[in-house]
Amino acid sequence: QLQFVESGGGSVQPGGSLRLSCAASGLTLDDYAIGWFRRVPGRDREGISCLSSSDGSTYYADSAKGRFTISRDNAKRTVYLQMNSLKEEDTAVYYCYSAARRLWGQGTQVTVSS
Questions:
Q1: Which of 14, 45, 97, 100 is most buried, with most CB under 10 Å away?
Q2: Beta 68-73 vs 10-12: how paired, if at all?
Q3: Cβ atoms of 19 and 82 closer than 8 Å
Q4: How many angstroms separate the first and last alpha carbons of the chain?
């Protein structure tokens, strides 16, 4: 079955860290660029980071630069998003996505609050 399953979300205080995981099944992960998006209710989905399949290059939105790191473990078929120095405005549901396969995960909730 072709799917992404995100995990690792939770509630943290400002300044804290979380590592999100996107576990893939039904596809060879390193064949595809994988992105992380987030959505806040009432707002458009925001692209946060992307990792290419070809050369390992990365993209980060301005809101993520210097705080978030995307990485991949092909053997585990998992893409990670390490999030440090979290802010309240990072509160959202986070999704991983493959444009080539038009595949979204179900999302994982991140809540940053004091």
A1: 97
A2: unpaired
A3: yes
A4: 39
Q: What are phi and psi of 88, to 5 degrees?
A: -60, -35
User: What band does 54 get if pLDDT is binned at 50, 70 and 90?
Assistant: confident
The residue length of the chain stands at 114
pLDDT at 15 over 90: yes
Q: Compute CA distances 7 → 18, 74, 99, whole Å.
A: 10, 17, 20
- Euclidean distance between CA atoms 21 and 5, whole angstroms: 8
Task: Copy the structure tokens of residue 72.
Answer: 């991949």
Contact 96, 9 (CB under 8 A): no
User: Which helix or strand (DSSP H or E) is residue 70 part of?
Assistant: strand 68-73
In the structure, what pLDDT confidence band is assigned to residue 37 with cuts at 50, 70 and 90? very high
Task: Give ∠ CA 44-45-49 in degrees, rounded to 5.
Answer: 140
Q: What is the pLDDT of residues 67-105, one digit of tens each?
A: 999 999 989 999 999 999 999 999 999 999 999 999 999
